[in-house]
Amino acid sequence: MDLAAKLPEMEDAALAVLRENAGRLEQTGTATQKAAAAALMPALDAELEKRRAAKLEAARTKRAATKRAAKSSA
User: In degrees rounded to 5, what are phi and psi of residue 40?
Assistant: First the structure.
């Protein structure tokens, strides 16, 4: 199994660290490290964006539920 397939299983903090490291290696690594980091970046960015969108949607849902509860109790 390649690393990109494991991204959904990773915790948010570990994923963020991996993204930082890949970005660093893309700039300063050996040719092999640069290539591996560049290949992984799209999957990393996609997973981070998916999680960001899910968190925003959860916050919107919670906010809407709070407003509904406030209206019904008023």
Answer: -85, -25
**How many C-beta neighbours within 10 Å does residue 53 have?**
10
Judge contact between 30 and 16, C-beta under 8 A: no
Contact 51, 12 (CB under 8 A): yes
User: For the segment 10-32, what is each residue's pLDDT rounded down to a tens digit?
Assistant: 999 999 999 999 999 999 999 99
Spell out the domain ranges in the chain: 8-73
Report phi then psi at 29, rounded to 5: -80, 180
Q: Which tokens go with 45?
A: 């960015």
| Token pair 């903090």: residue | 13
Structure token digits, residue 62: 């919670």
